[in-house]
Amino acid sequence: MSDKEEMGYEIVEEDDGAEGDWNGETAEGGCDGDCEGCSGSCEGCSGSCEGCSGSCSQQDLRAQAHPMSHVKRVIGVVSGKGGVGKSLVTSLLAIEMRKKGLKTAILDGDLTGPSIPRIFGIHEKAAGNAFGILPSESAAGTKIMSVNLILDNETDAVIWRGPVVAGVVKQFWSDVQWGDVDVMLVDMPPGTGDVPLTVFQSLHVDGVVVATSPQQLVGLVVEKAVNMAEMMQIPVLGFVENMSVFKCPQCGAVHEIYGPGATDALAARHAGRPVCKLPIDPAFARASDSGAIESLDCHELDPLLDAIAKL
Fold first, then answer.
1. What pTM, to 2 d.p., does this model score?
2. Which CATH number characterizes residue 226's domain?
């Protein structure tokens, strides 16, 4: 018996990537029969196989966490729009929860734009052993896994198709030895495509935080991500409106650089969840660029921390 079998791994055949070829690897609780010719009438069946002889129950597509992982809560940070600061919001939430004594971790799901390691000042490669990958740790102890920690160079382009990207994110859950974690934050790429769908289906997501910015157009696009979470029956815990206002350091006047925010109205349409507003503050940019994000305090996120604590 191999080391991995002793740790409780299920050994399955490798998928050669051919369309419709599962090579015997079935979802827990799903169809275990030969799916050739399935009529698609079974509950939980996608209808893509014709005349399946197996007994289909409702499929559970969730992936098994690594045997050495004990993650209590998983929170996704989502947005339908890029450039609104999801990675900043993810980082600040992890920092503030860490200060409250929680063991935190970040799964960087934005594989084509991974910025979490740089924000935390982590540049060394992730290590591993016979049982899987070991996450890196920030100076304050937040565990982090990102594609930048396994690339030869930080600036290497990730030119992968959607299913491959989604598969790597799933592996970050299954193959990384996360250890004991109170709250794991998943920094997702923008949109409602392969990676958010994989995270919602493969991980036991307890809720999502929605990152946005004040512009009306951004609010329109972001609402698509909100609707996706609700369709997947994932609770929306609250909203973070980044770059909400700018306070002049000389006169103290508050300016709405991007106009009045649309997030309050968006939250009102979705059960009145709390809205936290982050200002335009050069300190955020300086700390992120220098890898010193953990030096910041961000009490603006306290209402969201309370919502997460109630899960």
1. 0.81
2. 3.40.50.300
